[in-house]
Amino acid sequence: MHPAPSIIAFSTFSGLGLGLLFWLGVDTTAPTGWVAFAFFAIGYIFAVGGLISSTFHLGRPERAIKAFTQWQTSWLSREAWCAVAALVSMGIYAFLLVFFDTQIHVLGWIGAFFCLMTVYTTSMIYAQLKTVPRWNTVLTSVLFIALSIAGGALLSGRVTIALVLLVIAGGLQFVWWKTGDTRFKESGTDMNTATGLGNIGEVRAFEPPHTGTNYLLNEMVYTIGRRHAEKLRLIALALMLVVPVLLLMLPFPHVFGVLALLSHVAGVLVSRWLFFAEAEHVVGLYYGMR
Amino acid sequence: MTMLPEKTERKMGLVIDLDTCVGCHACVISCKGWNTENYGAPLSDQDPYGANPSGTFLNRIHSYEVQPESGPAQLIHFPKSCLHCEDAPCVTVCPTGASYKRVEDGIVLVNEKDCIGCGLCAWACPYGARELDQAEGVMKKCTLCVDRIYNDNLPEEDRVPACVRTCPSNARHFGDLGDPDSEVSQLVAERGGMDLMPEQGTKPVNKYLPPRPKDRLNESPREEIDILAPLLAPVAEEPKGFLGWLDKTLEKI
After folding, report:
1. N or C: which end of chain B has fewer CB within 10 A?
2. Are residues B138 and A60, on separate chains, in Cβ contact within 8 Å?
3. For residues A255 and A257, what is the distance between their CA atoms, to the nearest angstrom?
4. Which of A206, A211, A287 to mutate to test the interface with B (most CBs of B within 10 A)?
5. Which residue, among B55, B75, B56, B61, has the nearest Cα to B27 in the 3D structure?
6. Both B205 and B236 in a single domain?
7. Rounded to a whole number, what is the distance in Å from the CA of B100 to chain A's nearest CA?
8. Residues 11 through 40 of chain B touching chain A, CB cutoff 8 Å
């Protein structure tokens, strides 16, 4: 799948921002005043910035409002609703904390719930697709949520929780990669089922329908960079897990905490790039490619 | 609405004969010709006369080489367009309701005024039947020539999809696959029509007729000739005379 920068940035930064808002929502003693303002501002910049960047890949962004209509069947539509619910409830919760030093716990929990639901609905946009076997697993949602709350914990300065969650998220990432490597084969879709010609003999793509490229090949048969996948996986895991954990165990959490966060975000960006670049769509079979 | 209908009154679709398709791409051209100037936005081309031309097509023809265990390989031309699936995953993923499946005839269509061009339906389709038009920013797909098949302004023989009308080898058939007595359903029953990627659970309406078994060289009529073969064996296995001398000399060098 084509790794569109707008989608990679969207899912990484909105995941991080929503993760931070989640922790602020469930915090029993949430910050107030200007400290709260700073935290919520960071959360909103990441979450809203990510959501805005996701509209850049639309062919007709001016009609984006119509995406709210089909929540009954479409995960993309559900994501739009959950994002609005999360941002509105968290906005009121934040407003009361910043300006009135008042914490309404129930509002925080509702906001936190919708933050997680937004990340979940985002992940389901990918996990629902039978056409991309690597994504088509419940593990995709678990991984997205784990990365979101781990990053959020890191961003909100919860050192101990962040350490535990980073290790869990890193482990999930490893398992997702390893099980993902065989999922295309396990899906049962191959040249024979694609063409129905397998009972005659071995099927090979002889000539594609067009000499140039097309939308399908650009969008769904993206093969560039896959040969470096193993190295990039190691880089991603080192940046998102190993480096932040080491930095967090050092003294002076404020200095090293920022470095740990930067490293983690860079690692998640690499991992999200691989999420798309390594994903193979079954339509590639018709072109004799994956 | 992106909720799929429980059932459709008819299941209009295509039956494509892989045995008779000659891979001429006439259906591709007639499809593009009709659909670029009728229903919806035109099918744009990018850099059509330049170094890297590309464009939007609703119908494309692949070619496959199939190598049986013995005998020569077979070349099979393979037209592919929207299969108007009963359980169309492209419809349910649409966030705006632009994609829908019609109750009256099962045709899957895009209402281009509602399409935001997110591309998720193209991701959800296993067959590559949907292409995002790069000029218009909306999703394009086969309409089964919905503006031809019910069009009273056209002569009756033209009220079929453009690809079916133009096919010179009669490899494309159009009709109601929900009616077991229709010509297309009979054809599917006779020839063992098949689904593409059945494991994807899309329940395609369009069916493909597999190629008929091919005649083989070395089967019965050929064996009769083989009885005489020993008499036709070359008389001189080794060259003699000057050529023999030349052969030996060249070997030695």
Report:
1. C
2. yes
3. 5
4. A206
5. B61
6. no
7. 11
8. 18, 25, 28
Tell me the β-bridge partners of B65. A204, B75
Contact list, A1 vs chain B (CB under 8 Å): 123
Report pLDDT for A178.
94
Identify the three-state secondary structure at position B81: strand
Do B62 and B156 lie in one domain? The reply is yes
Mean pLDDT of the region A205-224: 89
**Residues of chain B contacting residue A74, judged by C-beta atoms under 8 Å apart:** 2, 92-95, 120
Element holding B147 (H helix, E strand): helix B146-149
pLDDT tens-digit map of B134-181: 999 999 999 999 999 999 999 999 999 999 999 999 999 999 999 999
Q: What is the mean pLDDT of residues A13-28?
A: 93
Q: Does A124 touch chain B (CB under 8 A)?
A: no
Burial of A253 from C-beta contacts in 10 A (0-12 / 13-18 / 19+): middle
Q: Is the residue at B1 inside a domain?
A: no
Say if CB B2 and CB A74 are below 8 A apart: yes
φ/ψ (deg, to 5) at A166 = -65, -40
Shared domain for B124 and B240, answered yes or no, is: no
Which CATH number goes with the domain that contains B116? Answer: 3.30.70.20
Per-residue pLDDT at B218: 60
Cα B165 → chain centroid: 15
Asked whether A66 and B81 are in contact (CB, 8 A), the reply is no
How far apart (Å, rounded) are the C-alpha atoms in residues A38 and B108?
Answer: 49
Q: CB distance from A186 to chain B under 8 Å?
A: no
Residue B149 lies in a domain: yes
Instruction: State how far Cα A114 lies from the chain centre.
Output: 16
Q: Give residue B241's domain range.
A: 220-252
Least Cα separation, residue A118 to chain B (angstroms): 15
B239 and B116 within one domain: no
**Partner A, chain B 154-193, Cβ-Cβ below 8 Å:** none
- Total structural domains within chain B: 2
The three-class DSSP label of residue B65 is strand
Domain annotation for chain A: domains and CATH numbers: 5-187+209-287 (1.20.1630.10)
The answer to whether residues B114 and B196 belong to one domain is: yes
Partner residue opposite B61 with nearest CB, options A74, A202, A209? A209
Q: How buried is residue A284: exposed, middle or buried, by Cβ count under 10 Å (0-12/13-18/19+)?
A: buried
Return contacts of A248-256, CB within 8 angstroms, 24+ apart.
A248/A159, A248/A162, A248/A163, A248/A166, A249/A163, A253/A157, A253/A159
Q: Count CB-CB contacts under 10 A for residue B12.
A: 25
Q: Collapse the DSSP code of B97 into the 3-class scheme (helix H, G, I; strand E, B; otherwise coil) and give the result.
A: coil
